[in-house]
Write a structure and sequence with these properties.
With about 475 residues, this protein is α+β, with helices and mostly antiparallel strands. Helix content is about 30%, strand content about 20%. Helix 7 packs across helix 10. Keywords: ATP-binding, Ligase, Nucleotide-binding. GO terms for molecular function: ATP binding; glutamine synthetase activity.
């Protein structure tokens, strides 16, 4: 069964809750969406559960491979000595890790040690700030997440025995990426039989997610060699972001136990579809009523696609359309992300929208094809390589900006059968590279600065500039193979 978590947990209840435990695992989320944490003695955890504890700020001063940024950023640097931040456990995030003997687990958020205010670059805190802004008006937000990901078998040693997944990165230092074998071969989306090939792993993930309180409501093979797709259970937006991060933890942890390397990068294989990370969002009132649904059909709507969409929903959509180009480093945060966002691979490349239109960057799901209570927007630009807290914060912030400004929808919907070929008459072309996206994100008049503030934009933008520089300095296998002899 799923982890039994009280609706509210107080510090005073912790000793009883953890009475049979000797240790506690904690983790926070860095800008790349990676969980960074440690195991703590129960006694230590109980002593710091209320006020928080010191956690080295370097996790905001280095990249996903622990290399400090070329240009030192404000949160963590040599000048401040890579000082400690204050890590505050979120007691409401309590669950137990089923594949680690049910050790207690808590998520943490990071605070500035000088002001004790939440850290601007802390993904959980950035989303919470946006959620709190809506809460002040009596509103909440709901969300859902879908992830596609490739899976590779651990490569074999020379004697034919299987390496463990921890050696996969080492294997790829000396071998071609294409030599890494897929979990299954060929294209077979929605297969009933393919999961049986790896039954313990397939059902193990589903069961572990349920127990770890990040449950899956849909789980199937996707088109591609060794590709699975998971639709996580719909829920409150901040909890949804946590569950999306924890879902990746489940998959990677169980993968390591089965000799499998899950891969969430946006485009792991040339010539094949990429890995999407679609996000669904709606706004509700205090009674959980969907505020994007229209009570009665608006037969005079500007476009037939929005005849069942409320005025709030229309303003929200307008905000998404207006701000989408300015937040691309959040929706496509890595150099590889832009290999997925190309024409003819079921990935959106323009600012576009439409009712039940899977070629658009923003898909409206509403009556008559869906029930009124299910009315929502699916943003289809993000890949599986994104940070879910940043993505959901950005979608919510842009949409709410549209509501506050009562913005009008600036472009018509895509017609049925109409594709997004990147032409000017079908919406603005989204950035084609991380460099282009980051420059727009960081410019003075960026919508990102308006909704998130300069401190966050300067920090996150600086981390993306670091990725771009690493790519600019890299010499790829493609370059060597193409030019080594011919030029």
């Amino acid at each position: 069964m799923a982890s039994e978590t009280p609706a509210t947990i107080t510090v005073e209840q912790l000793p009883e809750l953890l009475k049979n435990d000797t240790s506690v695992k904690v983790a926070g989320v860095d800008v790349d969406g990676l969980l960074r944490g440690k195991l703590m003695a129960k006694k230590k955890f109980l002593s710091v559960a209320k006020a928080g504890f010191g956690f080295c700020s370097v996790i905001f001063g280095w990249d996903m491979h622990d290399q400090t940024y070329f240009r030192e950023l404000g949160i963590s640097n040599k000048e401040n000595g890579y000082r400690d931040l204050i890590a505050v456990p979120d007691l409401s995030s309590f669950r137990r890790i089923p594949w680690e003997n049910d050790v207690p687990f808590f998520l943490i958020s990071f605070h500035d040690p000088d002001t004790n205010e939440t850290l601007s670059a802390c993904p959980r805190s950035l989303l919470r700030r946006t959620v709190d802004k809506l809460a002040e008006k009596g509103y909440g937000a709901m969300a859902g997440a879908e992830y596609e990901f490739y899976q590779f078998r651990a490569p074999q040693n020379h004697d034919g025995t299987e390496r463990n997944t921890s050696s996969t990165a080492a294997f790829l230092r000396d071998n071609a990426v294409t030599s890494l074998p897929s979990l299954t071969e060929g294209m077979f989306g929605y297969s009933i039989t393919r999961p049986v090939h790896n039954q313990d792993y397939y059902y193990g993930i589903f069961d572990a997610c349920l127990k770890f309180n990040c449950g899956i409501e849909g789980w199937h093979t996707e088109s591609g060699p060794g590709v699975f797709e998971a639709a996580l259970e719909f829920g409150e937006i901040a909890q949804m972001a946590d569950k999306a991060s924890l879902f990746k933890l489940v998959v990677k942890s169980l993968g390591s136990k089965h000799g499998i390397t899950p891969c969430f990068m946006a485009k792991p294989r040339q010539g094949l579809p990429g890995n999407s990370g679609h996000m669904h969002v709606s706004i509700v009132d205090k009674d959980s009523t969907n505020l994007f649904a229209r009570a009665e059909e608006d037969k005079d709507a500007a476009y037939p696609d929005i005849r069942f969409l409320s005025d709030m929903g229309r303003h929200f959509l307008a905000g998404l359309i207006d701000g989408l180009p300015d937040i691309m480093p959040i929706l496509a945060p890595n150099v590889n992300s832009y290999k997925r966002l190309v024409e003819n691979f079921w990935a959106p490349v323009t600012v576009s929208w439409g009712l039940e239109h899977r070629a658009a960057s923003i898909r409206l799901i509403a009556p008559p094809t869906a029930s009124a209570k299910a009315t929502r927007f699916e943003v289809r630009v993000p890949g599986a390589d994104t940070n879910p807290h940043f993505v959901l914060a950005a979608i919510l912030a842009l949409g709410w900006r549209g509501v506050e400004k009562k913005m009008e929808i600036a472009i018509p919907p895509l017609g049925k059968g109409e594709d997004v070929g990147g032409t000017a008459d079908k919406g603005q072309r989204l950035a084609k590279s991380l460099k282009e996206a980051t420059e727009r994100f960081m410019r003075k008049e960026s919508v990102a600065r308006e909704v998130f503030g300069d401190e966050f934009v300067d920090h996150f933008g600086g981390t993306r500039e670091h990725e771009v520089r690493l790519w600019d300095e890299a010499v790829t296998d493609w370059e060597v193979r193409r030019y080594i002899e011919a030029v």
